[in-house]
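Reopening: Twitching motility protein PilT still failing for me.
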Amino acid sequence: MSTLRPFVYDAGALIAAERDQVAFWRTHRSYLTAGGLPLVPAPVVSQAWRDGARQSQLARLLHGCRVPPLDHALAVSVGELLGKARTSDPVDGTVALIAARLGANVFTSDPDDIQHLVDHLGPAGKRVKVTPLR
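Support: Ran it again with your exact input. Result attached.
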């Protein structure tokens, strides 16, 4: 029996959903059908959400996802990662750290930024697969 690799979406994935990009929705639906539940870290939702009345596709996507919170311990770990990587985007840092902890596949419009961060996570970072959105 195979285990599904966790999916983590960054803001680029949420934008792809909102723009109704067929390839993204196909991948998302296939994952749900296989029994997966994608993760969208809470800071990613904050980065993409603007007006629920106008973001019906985004709301639909989030309905089928789990949104883990950014608690104190995770926030501290993200800050430490940003320091090691000499970057400053806490949203990308949260995505990279959650993905590394789970050995996840990250769907991102910023593959170089995410890869830079996971490269600073040692062995845990090697478990992350960074998938660029087209």
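The first strand starts at residue 7 and ends at 9. If you still see a failure, please send the error message rather than a screenshot.
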